[in-house]
Structures are given as structure tokens and as C-alpha cells.
TrEMBL record:
Name recorded for this polypeptide: Uncharacterized protein
Gene Ontology MF terms in the entry: methyltransferase activity
Pfam families found in the cross-reference section: Methyltransf_7
Superkingdom in the source lineage: Eukaryota
Length: 321
């Protein structure tokens, strides 16, 4: 049989009301004649589609992506490869969660900025990295910053090691990582500034006896925002993955939804309340976040949302041999 459209790679088919099985009849013959090149086949809005013809589709030897949307009557009968499994797995992603070589795709979204623990030296009074009077590394000494960096490096190593165990060779790891641009410091970001301000509110409360100062000194937020270069170096050092893509996601407008100081305060409270309550008790929460709201009202940083520098890195990795 002659090959039709020998270079056709993408065929987008939509709005076929009559079709009940796909591919069938004329479509099957057409697909067979494009079989050598077709790699992407999105089908959508087949209102009466009830079944897919497995044999017909298997003729498409180059097919890599079959996407199906708005086909409300389609049943997955007999379509083993269209079935998905959902499982809740307890445990930390810094360790292995799934059996060896059992996954083809892993996605981690906006979570790798959370460290597995606070680096021990930043709560040690005798260490040069003691983080006195602060709750984060923003604007802290270089020893504190280094302690956070070291913990992040260890955590990334365990994360990548664990995912490398779980993925098949050639499997993909897709990451969205909250980060800071290479040339910026954490104090150029809302998140860094917010944590610094929250720390100063706690210190002010300590000065008037509302919390113990020692409690503030021993409280630290286990979050680290990596520069892209550092993350790239850690992935390369791990050696289990090839970097297929690494770029900054366009999230420029995200600040627009949190324009007022009370909304920003609520947002931060939602993220940190559990941690703060566990360390200080719940009596301080309203007072702390009221103080925080008032303090950021006067901060020029927050009056100019365009100053936000936090980025989300998109990283696509492939498991090596
Ligand atoms: C900002 S939320 C992101 C949620 C979701 N992935 C998304 O993109 O909308 C961060 C999530 O990471 C989870 N997380 C942080 N550290 C973790 C760890 N070591 N193991 C498993 N989950 C963790 C938190 O519980 C939280 O649900």
C-alpha cells in the first residue's frame, strides 16, 4: 500500500458526532497509510464514541501520544494501557516510596523547597551558624546560609537517588521547583522578606514578654530556594539523570491575586500556622499575624508587586542507563 502524507506527524481530529468506534472503516485505512510517520494523535469531541479499535491503532507504529478528550461515552473496556492506578503512599519523598523500576513518570510540584529537617547547627548556641534572633536564612550570616544550602544538597541527593531507584531506565522526572534567579539573593523575594519580617515580629513579641526569646532562637522555617545553577550542579553530581530541559516558568502575574497585606498574611498563616503552633502553642497566632499584617502594610516591597523575584523552575530529567 502507498504511504499517504509520508511526513505527517500530528493529526488533530475533532467534532465527529457519528463515529462510534475509532479508527474504523475509512479512517482505519487512512491511518494505516500514514502509519510510518504519525506520532501524535489528539482526538476530541467524539460525542458518540463508545470504543477504540486496538488493532487499528496498533498499526500506527510511530505513535507516541494518543490524547482523548471530550468523548463522554468512551469506556476503557479491554484497554489495559489506558488504565491508571491511584495510590496514597505514606512517607517522605526524601526516601523511596515505590518499588524499584516501577514508574515511567514522576512529577513533583512546588515541594522540593521544603527541607527534610532544620540543619542542626543553626539551633546550636555554640556553633558559628547559630541563627539567633531570626527564623530563616534571609539576611542571616553566611554560616546560616551555608547550613541551609548543605541541607538542601543532602536532601536533593536523597530525593534524586530515591527517584532513580523507582524509575525505569528512560523514565521521566518532571519537577517544578520554587527557586531564586542566579543573580538574586533570597532577600529580593517576597517569601524571603516575609519570613524575615515574621521573624522580627516574633522578636518584638519576645521583647515585651509575649514569647520566650529562646523559643524564637530555636525556631526556624525549613525552606530553601535554590538558584538554578546550584540545582543543575546537584543533578549533574548525582549522575542518574540527563537534563532534557530546564527553564523558568512564566509566573509573573501570580502576585496579583494577593495584593492586600491581610491576604498575604492569611496566605503565610495557612502555610506556617501548623509549624508555629507546634513550637510556640496556639495562643500567639492571632497576635503574631496581626503584627505581621501591620508591618507589611508599611513595606515598600509589598507596595510594588513587580519586585517579586521568586521563580518556579521547570526541570525535565530522564533516567540514565
Ligand atoms: C506547596 S505544597 C504543593 C502541593 C502540590 N504539589 C501543588 O503543586 O499544588 C507542598 C507540598 O509538599 C509536601 N511535602 C513537603 N515535604 C515533603 C516530603 N518530604 N515528603 C512528602 N511530601 C512533602 C507538603 O506536605 C505539601 O503538601
Amino acid at each position: 500500500m502507498d504511504t499517504l502524507l509520508p511526513s505527517l506527524q500530528i493529526l488533530d481530529i475533532a467534532n465527529c458526532q457519528q463515529v462510534e468506534s475509532f479508527p474504523e472503516g475509512k479512517r482505519s485505512a487512512f491511518l494505516r497509510r500514514t502509519s510510518t510517520s504519525l506520532s501524535t494523535l489528539p482526538i476530541k469531541e467524539f460525542q458518540n464514541l463508545r470504543s477504540l479499535d486496538k488493532k487499528g491503532l496498533q498499526l500506527l507504529t510511530s505513535l507516541q501520544l494518543l490524547s482523548i478528550s471530550d468523548c463522554p461515552r468512551l469506556k476503557a473496556r479491554g484497554w489495559d494501557f489506558l488504565q491508571y492506578f491511584a495510590a496514597g503512599v505514606p512517607g517522605s519523598f526524601h526516601g523511596c516510596l515505590f518499588p524499584k523500576a516501577s514508574l515511567h513518570l514522576i512529577h513533583s510540584s512546588c515541594a522540593l523547597n521544603w527541607l527534610s529537617k532544620i540543619p542542626i547547627e543553626i539551633t546550636d548556641e555554640s556553633s558559628p551558624a547559630w541563627n539567633k534572633g531570626r527564623i530563616h536564612y534571609t539576611n542571616a550570616t553566611k554560616e546560616v546560609v551555608e547550613a541551609y544550602e548543605t541541607q538542601f544538597s543532602k536532601d536533593m541527593e536523597s530525593f534524586l537517588f530515591s527517584r532513580a531507584q523507582e524509575l525505569v531506565v528512560g523514565g521521566l522526572l518532571v519537577l517544578f521547583v520554587p527557586a531564586v534567579p542566579d543573580v538574586m539573593s533570597n532577600s529580593d523575594t517576597f517569601t524571603g522578606t516575609e519570613l524575615d519580617i515574621l521573624g522580627s515580629c516574633l522578636m518584638n513579641m519576645a521583647k515585651v514578654g509575649l514569647v520566650e526569646e529562646a523559643k524564637v532562637d530555636s525556631f526556624n522555617v525549613p525552606a530553601y530556594y535554590t538558584p538554578p545553577k546550584k540545582l543543575k550542579a546537584l543533578i549533574e553530581r548525582n549522575g542518574n539523570f540527563s537534563i532534557k530541559r530546564m527553564e523558568v516558568l512564566n509566573n509573573q502575574k501570580k502576585h496579583l491575586i494577593l495584593q492586600s497585606s491581610s491576604l498575604r498574611s492569611l496566605y503565610l498563616r495557612a502555610v506556617l500556622e501548623g509549624m508555629i503552633e507546634k513550637h510556640f502553642g496556639n495562643e500567639i497566632l492571632d497576635e503574631l499575624f496581626n503584627r505581621f499584617t501591620h508591618k507589611i502594610e508599611g513595606s515598600s516591597f509589598f507596595l510594588n508587586p513587580e519586585t517579586e523575584k521568586l521563580i518556579i523552575l521547570f526541570v525535565l530529567l530522564e533516567r540514565n542507563n
